[in-house]
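My main concern about presentation is that the manuscript never shows what a single data entry looks like. An entry of this sort, consisting of the sequence and the corresponding C-alpha cells, reads as follows:
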Amino acid sequence: MAGSGTSNQSIHMTRTEAGVGRYFERALPRTFLILLILFVGNSFPLGLRGSEIGEPVILTWNDNSGNEDGFRIERSKDNIEFVEIAVVGENVTTYTDSDSLEVGQMYAYRVRAFNEFGTSGYTNTRTTYYDPPPQYFFGELGTDGGSFAIMCRADGSAVFLGTTESDATTTLIQYFQVGSDGLFQFFVTDFGTFSGQIIDGQIYGSIDTSSGRSGGMSIASSDVLLSGSVAESNGGTASFAGFYDSGIDPESGTRLIVLAGPDGSGFVVSSFGSTISGGKLDLSADVPSLASLDDGTMVSVGFAEMEGILSGTVTRNGETFDFLGQDESTRSKSVFLNASMRTEIEGGGTIIAGFVVSGVGEKRLLIRGVGPSLAGLGVDNPVEDPKLKLYRFGESEALMENDNWVTGNVPSIQEISNSVGAFPLLLDGDDAAIVVSAVPGLYWLHVTNKVTRKGTALVEIYDLDGGNTRSSLVNLSLRGKVMSGTDPIIAGFVIGGNATKGIMVRAMGQELQGLGVSGTLRDPVLKMYGAGGAEGILAENTNWENDADLLREIAFDVGAFEFERGSRSAAKAMWLDAGLYTAVVSDRSTGSGEVLVEFYGIP
C-alpha cells in the first residue's frame, strides 16, 4: 500500500547481566584473554533502546569498547533462535532494519561487538511488535456534498465510514481488505460495490450503484465517486488518532462510532436502533468538538486525559446520552495472558473449553491438556491419558489434535512452556499439547479421558505473544462437572499489560438446560481469589441478580447470552490490575452437576 503517514520505531539496547568476562573464558582460547581484556568491564555495547511502535525499526546502542572492528546485529522471531542480519563498522551505534519485516510479527534484537580476536557479550535482548500505525484518508463521496473516512491498518485491513448529502444515507463497514498494490473492493447494500485504489497518499474509487438498492442513487452520475488524501501523521490529534466504538444505551443497541485522524480530521456515525446518521467532525485535542448530523442528532466529542479514550454526549429528539469510547488498540493494553481450568472427567468422558480470539492478525497459543504431570503437583487421581482436539466454530473437522505431547517436537514444546512459565510435562507421561497460530474467531477445545477410570484434568491456554499483538484473548470458558464434597471447578487466569482490565466471571447452571445439558448444577457459588489465595477472597457471589442491571449490560456489550430471571447462577464484574487470579466454583448445598465457567474481558 502506498502513501505516507508512518513513523520510526527505535530500540535502545543495554547489556545483559551475564558476565562478559566469563563468556570469553568459555568461548575463546586462553592465549587471547589478555588481548580481549579491552572488551571486558566497560567494553561491551550498552543501551539497545527505543520506543514500541513505528516503521522501520531503528536500533541504537552505546559503544563502550575502544578496539572493536564493528558490531553484529541479530534478530529472532521466537526469542530463541537468532539470525545475524547485519554487520556494521567500528564506532557505528545505530542500525535501521527494514528488511522483509512482517506486519503482526514480534521481533527480538541483540547486538555484540567483535574484532579479529573474537566477540564481546550481547546487549540485553529487546523485543518489539512490528505494527506501523494506520493511515487515515478523508474525502468526498460523490459531487453532492457527501463525505467519507477510511482507516487502513498496516496489515491491509480497513474500516470505512461514509454518508451522502442528497438522500442522507450513512454506512459503516468495519472490515475490508486493501491489497499490497492498494486495490480494494467491498459491497454495501444501500450504496453498491465500491472499487478503488490507494496510490502515493491519494485514494480514488467509484461505486457500481446497479448492484445496490433499487433505483440507484443521486450520486451515480459522477465518474469518480470517491476521492481523498491521506491525513498528515503528526498533527495536533496524532496521539488520539484511532477507531473508537461506544455503546450508548445497550438496551436499545445504540452506538457511537468515531474515526479520529491525526490531523484533526474526523468522522462520526451514530445509530439509534435502525436509524443511522453520520458526518464529518473537526477534532481538537483541547476543547470538545461539535457536530450536527443530518437527522438532527448533535454530538459533542472530547478527548479524555487518558490516551485512547473519547468521551462526550449525544443529543437526539431532546434526550441527551453520555458516552465513553475506547480506541481499538487500547483494548489490548490489558489482556488475558493465559488461563487454566481444572475439573474431573468421567471415564471416556470429555470436557469442553472455549475461547475467542479478537482483533487483527494471528494469535500464537500454547494449549495443553494435562493429566499425568499433575501427580507431581500433589493432585490426587489425575487423568491417566488425556487427548486434546481443537475445533474452530462452524467446522466439523478438528483443526489440530494431540494424543501424546512427546510424539511431537518435544524440545520445542518444552522451550515454549518454559518461556511462558508453564510447569514442565513428564517425558514419560501421556499429557497432550499443541502450539497453534489462531486467526480471530471462536474455538472449542475437547479434552477426552481415554481410560475408563475418572480423574482430574487441567486445561491450559497460554498467549505466546505476551499480549504484544493486535489480536487478543477476549473470553474463555469451560464446561465441567462440580462433584459433591470437596471437588469444585478451579479456573485461573493471568492479566498482563499496563492498564486495569474489566472482567466478568460467570458460573452458569440452570441456563445450560436450554442448551440440552442435563444434570446441571443447581445452586453455583462463585469465589474469586488473588494470586495463590494469599490475598483472600476478592469477591463472592451466589445470585447474579444482586447486580442484574450491570451484568445484563456487560453481557450485551460482550455478546454473551442472558441469564434467566430467577435462576441461581452466579456472576461478578470486577476491574483488576495485572496479576494472577483464581475462580472456584462449587455448589451451595454440596451438590454436584454440570456448570459453565466463563471469563469475559469487558470492552
Q: What stands out?
A: Residues 1-10, 12-54, 213-224 have pLDDT under 50 and may be disordered. The longest strand covers residues 334-345.
